[in-house]
Design brief:
This protein has 569 residues and is α/β, with parallel strands linked by helices. It is 51% helix and 16% strand. The chain has 4 domains: 125 residues, Four Helix Bundle (Hemerythrin (Met), subunit A), CATH 1.20.120; 121 residues, 3-Layer(aba) Sandwich (Rossmann fold), CATH 3.40.50; 128 residues, 3-Layer(aba) Sandwich (Rossmann fold); 156 residues, Reverse transcriptase/Diguanylate cyclase domain (Alpha-Beta Plaits), CATH 3.30.70.270. The protein has 19 helices and 19 strands. A 5-stranded parallel β-sheet has the order 2-1-3-4-5, with helices on both faces. A 5-stranded parallel β-sheet has the order 7-6-8-11-12, with helices on both faces. The protein binds guanosine-5'-triphosphate. Its cofactor is Mg(2+).
Length: 569
């Protein structure tokens, strides 16, 4: 398995290591000159408290960060010296008021520490040699494309020509990006967590073998492998699972059900590798490193170094988890964690401390003040990613239960209503134009009556999937009622909203649902209103609803934009 990050990310990490190395060299110079200033022998000198506090701060930072950048021996030695200096830093040393005996003891200790500091410099140089040539600074890593979050990629591999053509057409309707690949040239240049590979039972073993060698750079599992097959019994399913399939889908393929299955697989995968992480640490280089590693593993990361901005960052970024440094200059991370919990909204936000503190008792005390886990610095990249995955996954699962509708995975009625109000407030604050839409399935009662409730549910889920895939990641979709959906399209005019919803309308009408009574097609109607043109979000929703009923009255299967209340009636 290739465990190296992609070239762009590797360049970025190398550059961060170089920057760390430069800073560490400067800090070691500073430490050495402080050591030279400290009183030697019987020499008397006024208060050394500031120098010792400064040295302690530098050693603490090095102990917490050097290992992350590959300078493990330097970090370990800095930690040993930090521990030795801690009592002197906390209680003051060599002050003019001390009695002679204490001064002598402290002086001895300082001399040993000074000798240790001089050894740190050689540890830095030795590690440089073992890490190879000093990395060059390179501009533009090229991997920072701002792709929409929901580019779901379906790779068709090892299928017959007929099956490939059918799936290419049927799945494109859902907005999936389809590629066809030969097994030998199978490669996965997509975002982790956003790909599914579909293959046949005959070629499963070969495809599974190739996929095994293509796992993502950070070691996260490769894409799920969905296998199509004609035999659907325990033994054949067992054989497929053994040969590497993550999911099975029976042939002949029912396209809406397959789309639903792919959605679910990607969703499950994505839950493992995605999430929003807020990092608060006053060491900017370390934060830049964490950020690069976590972004490379698929997370969205916001990193801040000033504790004063924490509350506004929380409400704007709305992270799934937070990584919090314990010691940040004048501020204590444990107190910041407590302060965050003042707000009921953040009571359940998982907080993970980042600290060089190794004493389990002290860790426990800190945890009692409002965090969930302790990550001891230096944190390895793998450990960081894995911890973030586990914490984000759990946080998102809990959150989903609270805010998402169980049939469709869309936002619940009350949540989308609140989001409409939030977006309305944003429109006013930022003076931008946004739209809201109400979407309703046509003659849905007849679908239920003629084909049963179960088929009705499949149709509802298919529309939910289509909306998710066709709309932008910044759009928000809610299940407003049984077969009625509300959509927020931020920074989007009603003309643009009409264009995209018309395409969705056409794609949905094109989907064929297989039922025992024969193939079924269903259409939808939509009404749109300009969110910023109304006094409140709920007024705009009422207007979109009116436009929807106008569309129903005008023959359904299309999109109407609200103009005036009386005109819409
Ligand atoms: N299968 C299923 N049906 C649902 C669900 N929620 C609501 N419905 C059904 O959706 C149907 C809505 O019917 P109506 O409000 O009469 O509207 P319609 O038949 O779609 O007619 P128009 O909206 O005028 O085109 C009812 O039969 C509800 O039982 C659900 O979760 N699953």
């Amino acid at each position: 398995m290739d465990n190296n990050p992609p070239a762009g990310v590797a360049d970025k990490l190398a550059h961060l290591r170089l920057t760390f190395r430069q800073r560490a060299a400067g800090e070691l110079e500073q430490l050495i000159s402080i050591a030279e200033r400290l009183p030697h022998g019987k020499q008397r000198r006024p208060d050394t408290t500031d120098d010792i506090a400064l040295s302690y701060g530098i050693l603490h930072r090095l102990a917490g960060s050097a290992g992350t950048f590959g300078y493990t021996a330097l970090g370990d030695q800095a930690r040993r010296l930090e521990h030795r200096l801690k009592p002197l830093a906390e209680h003051g040393a060599l002050t003019t008021d001390d009695d002679l005996c204490r001064r002598e003891k402290n002086r001895q200790q300082l001399l040993e520490i000074i000798a240790g500091v001089e050894g740190l410099r050689s540890l830095l140089d030795e590690t440089d040699e073992s890490l190879g040539a000093t990395p060059e600074r390179r501009a533009g890593s090229g991997d920072e494309t701002n792709k929409p979050a929901r580019d779901i990629h379906v790779v068709l591999c090892g299928l017959s020509e007929k099956a490939t053509d059918f799936l290419d057409h049927a799945l494109s309707n859902y907005g999936f990006l389809i590629s066809t690949m030969e097994i030998e040239s199978l490669s996965l240049q997509t975002k982790p967590g956003m790909t599914t590979v579909v293959t046949s039972e005959d070629r499963l073993a070969e495809v599974s073998k190739v996929l095994g060698s293509l796992e993502h750079a950070d070691g996260t599992p490769g894409p799920p492998l969905l296998c199509l097959g004609r035999q659907d019994d325990f033994n054949s399913r067992y054989a497929l699972a053994e040969a590497g399939a993550d999911a099975f889908f029976p042939e002949p393929v029912d396209a809406p059900q397959l789309a639903e299955r792919i959605e679910r697989l990607v969703h499950e995968q994505n839950e493992l590798v995605s999430g929003k992480i807020l990092i608060l640490d006053d060491d900017e280089h370390l934060v830049a490193h964490y950020r690069t590693v976590l972004e490379n593993a698929g997370f969205r990361v916001r990193a801040i170094s000033k504790p004063e901005t924490i509350l506004s960052e929380l409400s704007e970024f709305r992270p799934d988890i937070m990584l919090l440094d314990v010691r940040m200059g004048a501020y204590s991370g444990t107190t910041v964690a407590k302060l965050i919990r003042f707000d009921p909204e953040w009571v359940s936000l998982p907080i993970v401390y980042l600290s060089s503190e190794q004493d389990k008792h002290v860790q426990l005390e800190a945890l009692a003040k409002g965090a969930d886990e302790f990550m001891t610095k230096p944190v390895s990249d793998d450990y960081l990613v894995r911890t973030a995955q586990i914490r984000c996954y759990r946080a998102r699962q809990l959150n989903e239960l609270l805010i998402k509708d169980s049939l469709t995975g869309l936002l619940k009625h009350s949540v989308i209503k609140q989001e409409v109000e939030n977006e309305h407030a944003r429109c006013q604050r930022m003076s931008h134009v946004s739209s809201v839409a109400m979407v309703d399935l046509d003659h849905f009662k007849a679908v239920n009556d003629q084909h049963g409730h179960r088929t009705g549910d499949v149709v509802i889920k298919a529309l939910a999937n289509l909306l998710r895939n066709r709309l932008r990641s910044t759009d928000q979709i809610g299940r407003y009622g049984g077969e009625e959906f509300a959509i927020i399209l931020p920074e989007c005019t009603t003309d643009q909203a009409q264009e995209v919803l018309t395409q969705i309308c056409e794609a949905f009408a094109d989907i064929s649902f297989a039922t025992p009574e024969g193939d079924l097609s269903v259409t939808l109607s939509a009404g749109i209103a300009a969110l910023d043109a109304f006094a409140s979000g709920s007024d705009a929703l009422d207007a979109a609803d009116q436009a929807l009923y106008e569309r129903k009255a005008a023959g359904r299967n299309g999109v109407t934009v609200f103009t005036r209340f009386d005109a819409a009636l």
